[in-house]
Amino acid sequence: MSEVENKFRLDGHVAVITGAGRGIGEGIARCFADVGASVVLAARRTNEIEAVAASICESGGQAIAVTTDVTDDEALTRLAEEAVSKFGKLTIWVNNAGGSSMRMPLKELPREEWDRTIALNLTAVYTGSMIAAKYMDSGSIINISSGAGKGSVPGSAHYGAAKAGVNSLTMTLSAELAPNIRVNAVAPGAIPTEIMLKALDKSEDELDQLLSEWKIPLARLGTPDDIGTACVYLASDAASWVSGEIIRVGGGASPR
Q1: Does residue 154 have a cis peptide bond before it, meaning omega lies within 30 degrees of 0?
Q2: Each residue of 132-151: b (16+ CB within 10 Å) or e?
Q3: For the chain, N or C: smaller number of CB within 10 Å?
Q4: What letter does residue 30 receive in the DSSP assignment?
Q5: With bands split at pLDDT 50, 70 and 90, how would you rate the model's confidence at 60?
């Protein structure tokens, strides 16, 4: 293995990924395991993270599942403790859990949905980052943001506001936690996860239509692996001089 190839390896690292039972979170977990990291999968749906963990272990990787509600501070603390207890340390933390399936103008949005969206998509990122920093001597925090965090997003202002907050938090934490902990974010483009399709009221049969409507320059929708490999880069020594960045992975310029 060349020196450059070795920089992308994550052997000896221990990574927590929230929202890891499906979609982007699962893709990140699998990519991390493929390059040698021990992974701790967190989500509320125990059966999903246990299935992903079992699949990773069957493929020769190391993985455990820890049922976690990221809006519960005590649950996030237990998640970090489980990672350290099982694998001896914590070096990577990915704040991936999030989303909002409700789309409507702000004047019609129930206050409860605003509060829920901020709690899940912003406050949980803050709390997760603070807990990660407490248990991490050195390493990398990666926040999953969104293109909705930059520019206007009629119908999803609550979600966009939360992700704009994630972008700001990422940049500030990168300064406050330096030099031992790097903090970056990835902003995925159009990836047809369950929650995205629900928010857009689209089915998998309508993906070609979605691609046509969004006019993505690279002429395809994204996959969880597209985000997973970007996260591998940010977590690895290949990105040892990268912090405070929000990297868009979206197939080129897009109106979304």
Answers
A1: no
A2: bbebbeebbbbbbbbbbbee
A3: N
A4: H
A5: very high
